[in-house]
Model the fold of this input.
Amino acid sequence: MKKEVVAMLLAGGQGSRLYALTSNVAKPAVPFGGKYRIIDFPLSNCVNSGIDTVGVLTQYRPLELNSYLGNGQPWDLDRSDGGVHILPPYLGEGEKGSWYKGTANAIYQNIGFLDLYDPEYVVVLSGDHIYKMDYSEMVDFHKKSEAACTISVLEVTMEEAKRFGILNVEADDKVYEFEEKPPQPKSNLASMGIYVFTWSKLRKYLIDDEADPNSSNDFGKNIIPNMLNAGEKLMAYRFAGYWKDVGTIDSLWDANMDLLAGSSSGLDMYDDSWPIYARTPIKPPHCTGPDAMITHSMVTGGSTVDGAVANSVLFNSVTVEKGADIQYSILMPGATVKEGAKVYYSIVAENATVEAGATVGAAPDGSENWGIAVVAGGITVGKNATVPPKAMIREDVKGGEQA
Done:
């Protein structure tokens, strides 16, 4: 059962900044891009990178995510030797069980799982980022540099750097310092939360960290600084492609709009060389009525459109009735917008209904200049919610409030 590389995907995030969208599901299970879930991206990256053994560490509201993952078949991870494994927190004999206390503790609790495969290298991933990345290239970089840990980094502006863990490196990209959200950053190399570890090294540091009662049991706060302090070789791996942490309403809206921009945004879903796999429902093709007007939008199977849809993303089984107007919005599976209703710069969650004549959202600043560059209004209609007929829910509603 020995594997050279095993991936561990941290998918237990609560996603509190997504408000109503994650009140009943874990953040990695949130729908994205018309037919996907957020977790499809790291899972597909694993398969496309040749990693066939993936542990998915679940915690918050795992039912829907577990059901979605199933046996891993959509990602070619239904294997007898490897495949996808769902790893929730568990109670061992004589232990005072608890949730995963931090990212490092989550991996620590699954040392037994990793030992089954006795990997040379462990790739630690987050389940809530949208990006395409070949992890095999990062592993090769890690091998050649003979590092104990390699951290993927993205160049950001110095102003943005204050929001990230920042790596300060030497000329050869060897890390000499790690700073967590520094007020005065020394560099703009932001950690993406993607790590490659030499397992024999990581195993020791996880055990030592767990024995420290003062530790936060976190990679950024504890494991990485401890490895640096001990003189281990840490390297920064520079990534130059599309990457977005969709942890807020605005960033989730932005990433969906990036899909409509096509390859110019850096997020190309039509690249056959790097497909993103997903578990998709069996639905008939979408249907447009005689009064439908659809421009620059994605409309997924099972949807019925008889109104106006522009610059928007519609998931499966969405209904847009006659006279409805959808602009720069995201309608998640089963959403219904009834006759004469208007939805602007908004996200309507699964199975939510906007009743006839209601208005959700507005053009920013009341302007009629509809432009993708404008930040989303941030209106979110929560899962299974209903906006009453002729209600006015406009830009004065704070981002993420449930209707």
